[in-house]
Amino acid sequence: MSSGEPGDGAAVAAGALQGKVALVTGAGRGIGREIALLMAREGARVLVNDLGASVSGEGVDSNCAAQVVEEICAAGGQAVAHSGDASVPTQATDMVQSALQAFGRLDIVVNNAGILRKAAFTEISYEAWQALHRVNLDSAFLVSQAAARVFQRQQAGAFVHMTSTAGLIGAAEQAHYCSSKLAIAALSKSIALELGTQGIRSNCISPIAATRMMVAATGRALNAPGQLAANAVEGVAAIAPLAAFLASDLATSVNGQIIGARGNDVYLFNQPRPQRLLQRSDGWTIARLSEVMEPAWRNAWVPLERTRDVLNWVAS
């Protein structure tokens, strides 16, 4: 892992999204809110979507999105609120249409909406499994598909999806959350491969920050000392610059990537590729696999690690 070299930030900082229109789901609080605020400061007009549900998906606060819109407008930006449910097909389509009606175009979609429920694998109900996949994965599919049709007409557009180390690396007692978040990475890659030749980009961010979701995942309070502080810096705003960059024309060469962000650290994730090969001209049997594969690959097996085992340095 290498640290980045200082760049000419002043040359690209102001107005990096000037003239763009962004749709940000789950933008009423936390990381989504910070992304919406920064994109507005960078010149984008923003549709702020949030149903206002709790981190586990219960309840509704129709003022959640409107409050962020008020902040943007008070600072001189332009924004509209949408309190619809991104996991409902008609409401996902309505978000895209509302952005078009309000601002005349759509250039950026940030799929940030998500929920988390922690439970032992044998205790996860089918209802809970469906709920997490509906909010975390279906919403990203539905909003992206509706927006992609607009992007195809424009021959331009950028998707930024939120995945998680819970899916990319692994986590216990979160099987439904992990699987939905790993699927996000596959969705993003498929979009990038299929639509990249049409000027449409799709990338993932794997964020770590002290959010309500982090509290739900770890069971620790935001101000608790120790492990949470070491693995998740306080500032959710640290994620927003990466999202704005990936959405901007400054990142036209970046497509189909998964980038992590934690505090002042950003890191590129690898993606699954074959790394070892065994071949026999006369084929394989169970006995031969037992005799050859395990000793040959013993030192290459992927260890059973969690986020804290892999991201084991203290974020700056």
TrEMBL record:
InterPro entries: KR_dom (IPR057326), NAD(P)-bd_dom_sf (IPR036291), Peroxisomal_Beta-Oxidation (IPR051687), Sc_DH/Rdtase_CS (IPR020904), SDR_fam (IPR002347). Residues 20-213 form the Ketoreductase domain. Pfam families: adh_short. Coiled coil: none annotated. Belongs to the short-chain dehydrogenases/reductases (SDR) family. This is NAD(P)-dependent dehydrogenase (Short-subunit alcohol dehydrogenase family). It comes from Ottowia thiooxydans. The lineage of its organism: Bacteria, Pseudomonadati, Pseudomonadota, Betaproteobacteria, Burkholderiales.
